[in-house]
Design a protein that fits this description.
Helices cover 28% and strands 14% of the residues. The protein is an alpha+beta fold. The protein has one domain. The two termini are 26 Å apart. 24% of the residues are buried.
């Protein structure tokens, strides 16, 4: 189901049932995070590059800075990630379990969005300008995201990656409080 402006009214959090829901690898000590990435590479023949963690830390530093400009300080230093829409298809072997929630579960002052995934938005310097998709290095509030979706629609093949993944909107949650209603 979609809201009046075409934005889906649900978000999906995909996760590894062994590691649990609502995790961010950047919350871990670097050595522990690297061990998990090694396990993922080995178990799933993942193509995560050797510099993935360094790149992820840079992206999260950018997200924090932009988040602070848009919504101020929040309770979490690192975000919990969600897809906007229904992505509970179980196709991601790294995160085969899913939890779907209504978007309006999350107060607007603790969420931000990227029009595609945050890593692609941060690293894509060859994209269009800030006023057209795929919006390089641009973070959205819910209000500005609704305007972008009204103007441009949901992401489609304009930003297809070489991996062949369907483009999407990513939500970053910066507070654990809304998650307490979803017991583990």
């Amino acid at each position: 189901m979609r809201t009046q402006n075409g934005l889906p009214d649900i978000v999906t959090h995909n996760y590894d049932p062994i590691r649990g829901r609502f995790q961010n690898i950047c919350d871990l000590p670097r050595s522990e995070a690297e061990l998990i990435l090694q396990e993922i590479r080995k178990a799933h023949q993942s193509r995560l590059k050797a510099n993935y963690l360094d790149r992820r830390f840079k992206v999260e530093e950018w997200l924090r800075s932009e988040r602070h400009k848009l919504i101020g300080s929040t309770n979490r230093k690192t975000p919990i990630y969600f897809f906007v829409g229904d992505f509970a298809d179980g196709k991601d072997p790294l995160r085969p379990k899913s939890l779907r929630m209504r978007l309006d579960t999350f107060p607007e002052d603790v969420v931000t969005f990227t029009y595609s995934d945050s890593m692609s938005c941060f690293e894509n310097t060859n994209a269009g300008d800030e006023q057209s998709p795929p919006f390089p290095r641009k973070l959205f509030t819910l209000k500005s995201l609704k305007e972008a979706v009204q103007n441009w629609g949901m992401p489609t093949n304009f930003s297809s990656t070489q991996s062949g993944r369907q483009p999407f909107i990513e939500m970053q949650l910066w507070d654990d409080a809304p998650l307490h209603q979803f017991p583990t």
